[in-house]
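ok, trying the design again with the full structure, not the truncated one.
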């Protein structure tokens, strides 16, 4: 399967009602996809690849916030 197809499937996957271990796996999968797309981007400099990496990064950050918890608003 093409890496961009995998990224699209990952982007469209539902992330609700996941266990902690599912979130860890999803975060690692997002990182793998981002790094793989980055390798292709380095060679081609296609803007669509950069857009895909940005979307995956946003989804990865949401997953990681849920894993780590929100930071204390300040003391």
């Amino acid at each position: 399967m093409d890496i961009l197809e995998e990224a699209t499937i990952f982007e469209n996957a539902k992330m609700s009602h996941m266990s902690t271990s599912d979130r860890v796996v999803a975060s690692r999968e997002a990182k793998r996809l981002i790094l793989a797309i980055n390798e292709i981007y380095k060679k081609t400099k296609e803007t669509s690849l950069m857009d895909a990496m940005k979307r995956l990064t946003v989804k990865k950050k949401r997953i990681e916030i849920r894993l780590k918890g929100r930071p204390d608003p300040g003391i």
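Keeping the full-length input from now on. The chain has three helices and no strands.
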